[in-house]
Structure formats: structure tokens, C-alpha cells
TrEMBL record:
Pfam families given in the database record: DUF455
Protein name per Swiss-Prot or TrEMBL: Ferritin-like domain-containing protein
Entry superkingdom: Bacteria
Cited InterPro entries: DUF455 (IPR007402), Ferritin-like_SF (IPR009078), UCP012318 (IPR011197)
Alphabetized PANTHER family for the sequence: DUF455 DOMAIN-CONTAINING PROTEIN, SI:CH73-314G15.3
Taxonomic source organism: Chromobacterium amazonense
């Protein structure tokens, strides 16, 4: 049996820095295939560095989250803007997963395997949404977007435990919460094709959040920390408190959240949104 001599890390960095959408998607998918085939090895490579921005195309224009236009679904523009916002999240999620596998090199092979799989699945999600945008006459880049997901990646690039706490357990878990409402809105205008795409994405995202939950708890165990108290402390430190609103408790339970967390979220969900 021959052992691979192709190093994983330069290929990961190439995918992470790639600015061309289709090429990035292909690179992410191929990395996972080659890793699973055993043709990539974790050989010594240049160490990871602070990455102000992952590779992305010139468009969409990035604006402050408050300046991303909110449009109703009664117009084709509004319909396209909603799907574009979700596609942008999925594109960022490809970069987030690639960065986790590239940056945190003290983690075991299982961590690399998990995040390469997530990157490939996020690439698939983006393709599905890209197809729906195309059917509406739009393309990725046609609407402005924000950089909130990558901004949190920068803030957590020094500690894998903090990354697992705040990206999968907060930002990506929020996607589990909002997806059913988005699906209901799309169903009211008869867009059953996009509802079906979001069914696939929701199913996979439960798995992605579960991966983050599992590694967060494992890292807490290794450091002698209690996970729930540690998570609450990190929410305070990074000013990411949870607010009243709808929480998808069945999806969060499937993704591995603790029973007391779910109970606390249920109480939050019962409060008025302006509380």
C-alpha cells in the first residue's frame, strides 16, 4: 500500500483564497473526495495566518448588515433578493468550513474530515440556490450582501473552542431557527422548488451544527471546562446574547443542544420580541 505524498494544506489554502465562485466550489468538493480517497496527507506546511478576507468574487458588494435591502416577496426583485441572501450565507459557509480545516492543525483527523465534508455540502447548497436564482433571471452578485459570518471567523481565529462555540452554535444554529419561517413565506407565493431546496439545506445544517456542538463539548472536556457555563461566558465576552424570537427547538435538539439550553430558548421564544 502506497502512502500519499500530496499535502492537504496548500490545497486547502488554494481553495480558501480562490476568488472564482465555480472554481472554489469544485476545489472544495474535490478536496473532500480526495481526502476520503486517502490521496491527501497532513504534511508540514506553512503555518496558518490571520486572514482578513477569504477569497470571494468582486460582486456582491459588501455593505453593513443594516444596509442590506429588505424587499417583500410580492416582486421578482424581492424574491430574488431573499434567495440571494441565503446563497451568500452558503458561499460564506464554504469558506468557514475550509478555514476550520486549514487553520486548526492540532485537531485530529476526524475534525478535518468533518469540516471538509461540511465545505463540500455547503458548496452543494450554494449550487442549488444558484440554480433557483438563475431560474428567476438573477445571478450571485446581483444584490448587495454583508460580511457578518466572515467577521466572526476573524474574531475566533485564535482558538478552535471559541470558533466552535460562536460559529456553529450561534450563527449557524440561527439558520435552523429562521429556515421554517422563510419556507412558509416562499410557500405563500407558490415557490415550492425553493422550499424543497431549503428542506435539503435544513437537513444538512442540523448535521453541521451537530458537528460544531460535538467538537465544542470535546474541547471543553479536554480543557476541564463545563460546556454550558463556558458557552454563556463566551456569549458575554463576544456580546452575542440570544434574544426573544422563534427557535427551532426540534432541529436544535437533533443538533445536540442540551436539554436546559432548549428549555431556556423555549422561555426566550415565549417572550415578546421587543422584551
Amino acid at each position: 500500500m502506497t502512502h500519499s505524498t500530496v499535502s492537504l494544506y496548500p490545497l486547502l489554502e488554494q481553495a480558501l483564497l480562490c476568488r472564482h465562485v465555480e472554481e472554489k466550489l469544485l476545489l472544495a468538493e474535490r478536496l473532500f473526495q480526495d481526502w476520503r480517497a486517502g490521496s491527501l496527507a497532513r504534511l508540514a506546511a506553512d503555518p496558518p495566518y490571520a486572514l482578513p478576507e477569504a477569497g470571494r468574487p468582486e460582486r456582491p458588494e459588501l455593505v453593513h448588515p443594516a444596509k442590506v435591502p429588505r424587499r417583500g416577496l410580492s416582486t421578482r426583485q424581492g424574491h430574488g433578493a431573499l434567495l440571494h441572501a441565503i446563497a451568500h450565507i452558503e458561499f460564506n459557509a464554504v469558506n468557514l468550513a475550509l478555514d476550520a480545516a486549514w487553520r486548526f492543525r492540532d485537531m485530529p483527523d476526524g475534525f478535518v474530515d468533518d469540516w471538509l465534508r461540511v465545505a463540500a455540502e455547503e458548496a452543494g447548497h450554494f449550487r442549488l440556490l444558484q440554480g433557483r436564482l438563475r431560474e428567476l433571471g438573477f445571478a450571485y452578485g446581483d444584490f448587495p450582501a454583508h460580511d457578518g459570518l466572515w467577521a466572526m471567523t476573524r474574531k475566533t481565529d485564535h482558538d478552535v473552542m471559541i470558533r466552535m462555540a460562536l460559529v456553529p452554535r450561534v450563527l449557524e444554529a440561527r439558520g435552523l431557527d429562521v429556515t421554517p419561517g422563510i419556507q412558509r413565506r416562499l410557500a405563500t407565493i407558490g415557490d415550492t422548488a425553493s422550499v424543497a431546496v431549503l428542506d435539503i439545506i435544513l437537513r444538512d445544517e442540523i448535521g453541521h451544527v451537530q458537528i460544531g456542538n460535538r467538537w465544542f463539548c470535546e474541547l471543553c472536556r479536554q480543557r476541564g471546562l463545563e460546556p454550558q457555563a463556558t458557552f454563556r461566558r463566551l456569549l458575554d465576552e463576544y456580546a452575542m446574547q440570544l434574544h426573544p424570537g422563534d427557535y427551532n427547538l426540534p432541529a436544535r435538539e437533533a443538533a445536540g443542544f442540551f436539554a436546559d439550553e432548549l428549555a431556556a430558548l423555549a422561555r426566550l421564544g415565549e417572550q415578546p420580541a421587543d422584551a
